[in-house]
Amino acid sequence: MNSIAVFCGSSIGASEAYKEGAILLGKELAKRNITLIYGGASVGVMGTVADTVLREGGKVIGVIPTLLEEREISHKHLTELIVVNSMHERKSKMMELADGFIALPGGPGTLEEFFEVFTWNQIGLLQKPCGILNINHYYDLLIGLFDHMQNEQFLQPQYRNALLVDEDVTALLDKCAAYVPPAVKTYQTNK
Length: 191
Known about the structure:
InterPro entries: LOG, LOG_fam. Its EC number is 3.2.2.n1. This is Cytokinin riboside 5'-monophosphate phosphoribohydrolase. Belongs to the LOG family. There is one protein chain. This protein is an alpha/beta fold and 191 residues long. The chain has a seven-stranded parallel β-sheet, sandwiched between helices. Helix 1 links the parallel strand 1 and strand 2. Helix 1 runs parallel beside helix 2. The protein is globular. The chain starts with a strand and ends in a 14-residue tail after the last helix.
């Protein structure tokens, strides 16, 4: 893996654990010489992971739409900052640049970005690992929802199993590196 897109909050969150987890991820990305692709902000969990990768000598590419360039306070010291016209272009560019995706704690925007890449993997538009770094059990309820989707037969087991989850940065990155995509989703007709 040469690059990983990280979806995460432009806020720092209520727990110091979120910042600490972002720092651990940033250090490990730099150590493995994996380029960070992210939303381009200098604030929140986003800024923390980017600052850490840069401080550790790694490469960081930010992708930010003009709408958010000032609001999210774009990072001025990145390896590269790509300014795009829309949120759709932002996601498209991040998908193009990244070899995999990881969600850190964040809000609805983080989930929206992560769900899109996860869905695109199901239908075969992408075949890249999608992981959740479950810092401080932040995503326990979401992971439970994925299990519920599978139990209720709205998510096929191979796609539930393709969702990579770990609380440990090193373990999650190892899972991403070893990822083998499942077959493209098929459908059964209603009987």
